[in-house]
Amino acid sequence: MTERVAVVTDSSAALPAAWVRRADITVVPLQVIVDDEARAEGVQVGADEVLAALVAGRAVSTSRPAVDAFADAFRALEARGVTGIVAVLLSSRLSGTVDAAVSAADAVGIPVEVVDSRQVALGVGFAALGAAAIAATGASVAQVAAEAARVAASASCVFTVDTLEFLRRGGRLSSAAAAVGRMLQVRPILEIVDGEVALADKVRSTARAREAVLERARAALDALDVPAVGVLGVGKGDYLDDIAARIDGAAMMVRADVGAVLAVHSGPGALAIVTADVPPSLGGLE
After folding, report:
1. Considering the domain 156-279 in this protein, what is its CATH number?
2. Torsion sign across C-alpha atoms 250, 234, 121, 85
3. How many helices (H) does the chain have, and how many strands (E)?
């Protein structure tokens, strides 16, 4: 019997809607809580609304999807006749999303493999796309999960924020470190290392920080066979298009918004560049 493996990811993956439809990926939304009201990312709330709430000083936080949200998604796929499910998700060191999916796996009678990407944003998204590309060939659950893990392991996510305040509010940075950063006008160069946010460098201006992110992304790109690149930001800004235009050699490229959940923690003016090694069949996707 030919395998029909479905791929599931979460909304933090920052995948453009057209790519989700084309790859037939199911997206389970994380939650953004604004003044104690929970809203589903990408369904009930977007990054622009989050930014407006943050600037207005409203209480904004995030939460993983409920176990029932994953269970409902898994049941719907089982009803479609798929033979297995691979869920490619946000790093377990930053969110309880993986735990929720694992808890929901018993809701269906088909195999469910949960892949902890140890990544964020398009680091997760590229892994999900890679998994979907392999699933389309009739591959098994194990083969699809292995490809998701391979792409995720190849991924690099380097980013900077225009202010440390939102990382502090979200618990990703101590209040003392944020205060020092404000006084010194420090702009951090951050990266995802083994599923967690790590400080790679510090510079003294936004322009220098964005240049440093670009240079690190270019270096990561050189090591990939079929390089995918994602340039992501929060809010509107010509700098994102300018950065994307300065990246050569990508087999596929996307310029996207980081989404509502990640906007809560990064704030306006953020820049992230994600690179990953994807299957050859994804080359040329825009």
Report:
1. 3.30.1180.10
2. negative
3. 11, 13
